[in-house]
Amino acid sequence: MTLYVINPNSSEHVTQGLREAIEPLLNFGQKVDCVTLAEGPPGIETQEHIDSVIAPLHALALSKQDARGIVVACFSDPGVVALRALTPLPVLGIREAAVTTALTLGRAFGIIAIRPGSIPRHLAAISDMGLTDRCAGDRAIDLGVTELADEERAFSKMKAVALALRDEDRADVLILGCAGMAHYRDRIEAETGLPTIDPTQAAVAMALGRISLDQTHNPRARHA
Questions:
Q1: So what's the pLDDT on residue 217?
Q2: In the chain, which residues have pLDDT < 70?
Q3: Residue 31: left (phi > 0), alpha (psi -120 to 50), or beta?
Q4: pLDDT tens column, 109-150
Q5: How far is CA 222 from CA 205, 211, 217, 219, in A?
Q6: For residues 129 and 99, is the Cβ–Cβ distance under 8 A?
Q7: 218 Cβ partners below 8 Å, 6+ apart?
Q8: Which of 72, 161, 172, 222 sits between 20 and 30 A of 41, alpha carbons compared?
Q9: Rg for the chain (alpha carbons), in Å?
Q10: How far is CA 26 from the centre of its chain?
Q11: Taking the alpha carbons of 55, 129, 217, 103 in that order, is the dihedral positive or negative?
Q12: Alpha-carbon span 207 to 93, nearest angstrom
């Protein structure tokens, strides 16, 4: 039985980054498989992109007959709420997992976003969670998902934004606002001295707990 981590964009580079990010969590003994949604865009950066992946993402998730849980590895959490209505398995979105994890590591979190257009969506989701007063700031590096592969350029921009969130916005914990940022976590944490959350790591850790405890959003369906 497998915990599936679904990358809803079509970038195998991003999926490989997810595999590397979650490697420390494989010590728990649960099989975890990171898979790519072939129908997805190269990067999910707009509302149109988000809407376009929901149906094929659901189809891919529901096709996994050996699944013990699903992690949707996109910071927009596309289709997560709707997928929970379709399966009794634990379903985790990485943004929701990252934000809730941040609450245990600091008083005020800052988000390192990709494009400026992502920020209103992030803030709306945080407002829906009732956590606006815990969000110190949300700043964009203004690079697309595919551009994160340029490590020198991406890290330089991420470092500048992370320091601004710390020094100007007074964040005391940082969240990487894209699954494609996974392998930058340790470097950002070292540069800022702040606890830094990779959202996919947060979601997989949470999913492993759900699986171990046989805990889900719909226990009646699970035990029917």
A1: 87
A2: 222-224
A3: beta
A4: 999 999 999 999 999 999 999 999 999 999 999 998 888 888
A5: 21, 12, 9, 5
A6: yes
A7: 84, 88
A8: 161
A9: 16
A10: 18
A11: positive
A12: 10
Q: How far apart are CA 90 and CA 70, in angstroms?
A: 6
18 vs 61, 156, 182, 187, 198, CA distance in Å? Answer: 17, 21, 7, 16, 10
Say what angle helices 185-192 and 151-167 make with each other, to 10 degrees.
40
What token pair was written down for 86? Answer: 């379709």
Q: Which two tokens stand for residue 156?
A: 């330089």
Strand order across the 2-7 sheet: 31-36, 2-7, 67-72, 91-93
What percentage of the chain has pLDDT greater than the value 70? 99
Please choose, from the candidates 116, 81, 110, the residue with its C-alpha nearest in 3D space to the C-alpha of residue 98: 110
CB 175 within 8 A of CB 111: yes
